Amino acid sequence: MTASVMASAHASGVRLIRFLYCDNGGVVRGKATHISALEARLHSGIGLTVAMQAMNAFDQLQRVEGMGPVGEIRLMPDPSTFVVLPYAPHTAALLVDLCTQEGEPWGACPRSFLKRVTQQAADMGLMFRASIENEFSLITPVDAPLDPTLCFSTAGMLAAQAVIDDLFAWLEAQGIIPEQYYPELAHGQHEISVQHAPLVAAADRQILVRETIRAAAHAHGLRASLAPKPFLDQAGNGGHIHISAWTTDGRNAFWDGSQPLGLSAMGRQFIAGILEHLPAVLALTTPSVNSYQRLQPNTWSSGFRCWGPDNREAPVRVASPYRHDLAGTINLEFKPADLSSNPYLALGALVVAGLDGIRRGLDPGEPVMINPADMPEAERSARGITPLPRSLDEALDALERDQLLLDALGPALATSYLAVRRSEAAACADLSPEEIARRHRFIY
């Protein structure tokens, strides 16, 4: 594999290779090596201070035991992720694991966490495939949305067509196949989806998609915001997760044509596990202060703990399968997720919760067929349809109480993650809603 990477890098005229990772604050960071040192770096990685996993999204270093000025880890590249970046001259990228000096997975590595979760699923005879939708806002140099066009409007397509054309061409050049595109509800807002992939590959792909969105906007004198709520008077940006489970013989484990909605017993159990752990899961899927400016009832981002078929106010939506392949296309959409998350942590948390539901044979109850906000409060209470956390601190409190997720993350990752996200909540505690939105606008 090393020889293949070196041959591809030389054939493509690459000079710099970026080693990319996503940190506890959901920020994509990295270092780059010159091609003259690439072969050695493929074996030994690039050094990184342990403190970086204690750095929050505002570049404020937190006090976390073992993550101070002393100590170093290695950015160890996965050669299978090598890709030439079509938007950056003579530049390629590799996705990395955070490893110890001895080459072992570091306890605070998000990518290694998702690998462990993938193995847990494999031990149960399951392989998960996922894709994360990408909503983003195109913003002009005067910090305003690109255009005032309408949802799904062709005028919106026209206004952004040069950006979107480059975006699609550059994704295709990286082997990432887009599936859908359309202008979304907010001014200057757009959404793209890409093909599903196994969990780690889906998260790796998400890092590259984020980078490519920003690059396409930059190439046209714009900036892209992937923040959950860049403008308070506009709809927010989500990062909805679509997920399905597959058996070792290639069957979709969520499909059973004899059952209501075509949803198997295992699919129901997976949903029940997500609902059981949902408040804690949100600490990893909607993990910024800005997330809770978006996550409100009646905004199609979900506000109550429930599930339903094609119910876009429910956190878990059973997506209608395609008529030509019912068994192959049924999947679950998890709506309370956005692009301030680390995709390795978001996907891992979702699967950990769902697997718990399968192991325990949990039941999600009856599906909700209306907007849960329209239900009388007494009915919601009787059916266990409780409000979702309304702040980052509330979600982090839930995570600290959820032993299943804490154990899955492990002490180093859980401790550093909680410290980083708590510090972001504290940094925003005295800010106005407008200032919170402004501060998050271009972090993600």
Description:
By secondary structure, the protein is α+β, with helices and mostly antiparallel strands. It has two domains: 2-107, Roll (Ubiquitin-like (UB roll)), CATH 3.10.20; 116-440, Glutamine synthetase/guanido kinase, catalytic domain (Creatine Kinase, Chain A, domain 2, 2-Layer Sandwich). It contains 14 helices and 16 strands. β1 (16-22) and β2 form a beta hairpin. α3 packs parallel to α9 and α4 packs across α5 (199-219). The two termini are 32 Å apart.
What brief labels describe this structure?
444 residues, alpha+beta, 16 strands, Creatine Kinase, Chain A, domain 2, globular, Ubiquitin-like (UB roll)
Please specify the SSE layout and strand pairing:
Elements: H1 2-11, E1 16-22, E2 28-34, H2 38-44, E3 46-49, E4 72-77, E5 83-84, E6 91-99, H3 110-123, E7 126-132, E8 134-139, H4 154-173, E9 178-183, E10 189-194, E11 197-198, H5 199-219, E12 223-225, E13 241-247, H6 265-285, H7 291-294, E14 307-309, E15 316-319, H8 326-329, E16 331-334, H9 343-360, H10 377-382, H11 392-401, H12 403-409, H13 411-427, H14 433-440
Parallel strand pairs: 1-6, 14-15
Antiparallel strand pairs: 1-2, 3-4, 4-6, 5-6, 7-11, 7-13, 8-10, 8-12, 9-10, 13-16, 15-16
Helix pairs in contact: 3-9, 4-5, 5-9, 6-9, 6-11, 11-13
CATH superfamily placement of the largest domain: Glutamine synthetase/guanido kinase, catalytic domain
Q: Which spans have pLDDT < 50 for at least 5 consecutive residues?
A: none
Structural class from helices and strands?
alpha+beta
Mean pLDDT: 97
Counting DSSP E segments of at least 2 residues, the number of strands comes to 16
CATH hierarchy, class of the largest domain: Alpha Beta
Q: Order of SSEs, N→C?
A: HEEHEEEEHEEHEEEHEEHHEEHEHHHHHH
Radius of gyration: 21 Å
Q: Bin the strand percentage.
A: 15-25%
Our count of domains comes out at 2
In the CATH hierarchy, the architecture of the largest domain is 2-Layer Sandwich
Give the count of helical stretches. Answer: 14
Shape: globular
Give the termini distance in whole angstroms: 32 Å
CATH fold description of the largest domain: Creatine Kinase, Chain A, domain 2
Helix content: 25-40%
**Main beta sheet, described?**
6 strands, mixed
